[in-house]
Design a protein that fits this description.
Layout: H1 8-14, E1 24-29, H2 39-46, E2 54-59, H3 62-77, E3 82-85, E4 90-93, E5 96-102, E6 117-123, H4 130-139, E7 146-151, H5 159-165, E8 174-179, H6 189-196, H7 201-207, E9 229-230, E10 247-253, E11 260-267, E12 272-280, H8 282-285, H9 291-300, E13 319-322, H10 327-335, E14 340-342, H11 347-359, E15 363-366, H12 371-379, H13 384-387, H14 400-412, H15 415-419
Parallel strand pairs: 1-7, 1-8, 2-5, 2-6, 6-7, 9-15, 10-13, 12-15, 13-14
Antiparallel strand pairs: 3-4, 4-5, 10-11, 11-12
Helix pairs in contact: 9-10, 11-14
Length: 420
């Protein structure tokens, strides 16, 4: 792997000696703007930077650190210049020992206790729990210790923005640099246009413009418009015919005390059409159905819900995607011969991808068959109390149709398909 040309911002950071860096150094801004790429020469310099204590890589998980950080470094130095144990997270880079720690949740800070840390690099800093960051700073006691981080933006109330970047008490301890797509000279106009199509709304402002902006109001804003709806007259010709779509999937938000919701999706390869929905609200109906009854409804139909069912011919049965926590319902479906898969339940990525799908006209809902789902999608809102505390969280209220839509999109549609 050869290092490609850096933009001015990345070059100045990458080749500045660590002794000239601040105690905390943060590169933030747009996706693909060369933030992580600029860390490769910096890591090389840190290998011989004299400081006491451990050297750490940290991120959401050991796997994400490997994918985002270590893999490019290993490609650069070659297979004979490193050793990495994926299980223990111990790495040897050109004879220098590093450790990899996952920082997935608030409990992760326990992995730092007892350590003395001289150098640390945090991947995707805004996803790092504050308790982990605070503990890491407490462990970085050696003279001339250095912390580096790369991240995309989040809410302006996030601790990275409010407590670090905007903290006047840290002005002499923190260096930061904002990056845009134009700061990476290796991106073509075609690619920049492509990546811009992957984001809409608040996500566009954060991941493309690199703004610290709050998520407020409706999650999908004004995206549920005519472009997102269709009916029998505007349905693609032949969509429901076996040869009229590439794949059919039923997405499930399974309820116990809450509603049980199904979405019936026809994937043409370039777009997904939600043709029907099932919605059993046990509170409204005054009765909670059993897993067996829900499975009967899924297969045979439920006229009072407007759900036609998938039919008794197992040769034409679609895949079923459910919330991974719905183990008992999955078991019921599998006992009947249905193919069931865990849905990807990443809320942040799922909402971002679903918004992009709707905004680009690639996720469409049947106007008549999905009336209740459309209402929920229109009214699905951010919890502004949580957002004010630095965490984007949708309200857990009338969110059952949006949840199953998120499982479907996040499991079946990656960014490349969405942006194509």
């Amino acid at each position: 792997m050869d290092l490609k040309p850096f933009g001015r911002k990345a070059h100045e950071f990458a080749y500045r000696h660590p002794s000239q860096d601040k105690r905390i150094n943060i590169l933030y801004g747009a996706v693909r703007s060369s933030k992580t790429f600029a860390m490769i020469p910096k890591i090389m310099a840190l290998l011989v930077y004299p400081v006491a204590g451990d050297r750490l890589f940290t991120g959401v998980s050991k796997q994400t650190v490997f994918d985002n950080v270590l893999s490019p470094i290993f490609d650069f130095i070659g297979p004979n210049a490193y050793h990495y144990n994926r299980q223990s997270g111990e790495a040897n880079i050109l004879g220098v020992k590093w450790s990899v720690l996952g920082a997935r949740d608030e409990g992760s800070e326990k992995f730092l206790r007892g350590r003395t840390v001289g150098i640390a690099y945090g991947d995707e800093l805004t996803l790092m729990p504050k308790s982990f960051f605070d503990m890491l700073m407490a462990r970085m006691s050696p003279e001339n210790s250095r912390f580096y981080a790369t991240t995309n933006q989040d809410t302006p109330f996030h601790y990275v923005k409010a407590d670090i970047l905007d903290n006047p008490d840290l002005v002499h301890s923190v260096w930061s640099q904002h990056f845009t797509l134009n700061d990476n000279p290796n991106l073509t106009k075609e690619y920049k246009d492509f990546v811009k199509r992957m984001y809409t709304g608040v996500f566009y402002r954060r991941f493309i413009l690199g703004e610290w902006v709050q998520a407020t109001g409706a999650v999908y804003g004004g995206l549920i418009n005519e472009n997102a709806l269709y009916d029998d007259t505007t349905r693609p010709i032949g969509l429901l015919h076996p040869n009229g779509h590439m794949k059919r999937v039923i997405a499930v938000d399974a309820g116990t005390a809450n509603a049980q919701v199904y979405g019936d999706y026809y994937d043409t390869g370039s777009a997904a059409f939600c043709e029907n929905m099932y919605y059993w609200d046990s509170v409204k109906e005054g009765r909670q159905k059993t897993n067996g009854e829900y499975a009967d409804d899924l297969v045979n139909g439920c006229p009072e819900m407007g759900w036609p069912g998938i039919g008794k011919d197992s040769r034409n049965w679609p895949d079923i995607i459910t919330d991974p926590s719905a183990a008992s319902f999955q078991a019921e479906l599998r006992s009947r011969g249905l193919v069931v898969r865990d849905g990807d339940n990443d809320v942040d990525e799922g909402i971002r991808r679903t918004a992009s799908m709707i905004g680009r006209g690639k996720l469409r809902l049947h106007r008549e068959h999905c009336k209740r789902g459309i209402i929920e999608m229109e009214n699905y809102s951010w919890d502004e109390k949580r957002t004010d505390k630095g965490k984007d969280t949708p309200l857990k209220k009338k969110d059952h149709f949006p949840d199953q839509a998120r499982y479907y999109v996040n499991t079946e549609w990656n960014d490349w398909r969405i942006a194509a």
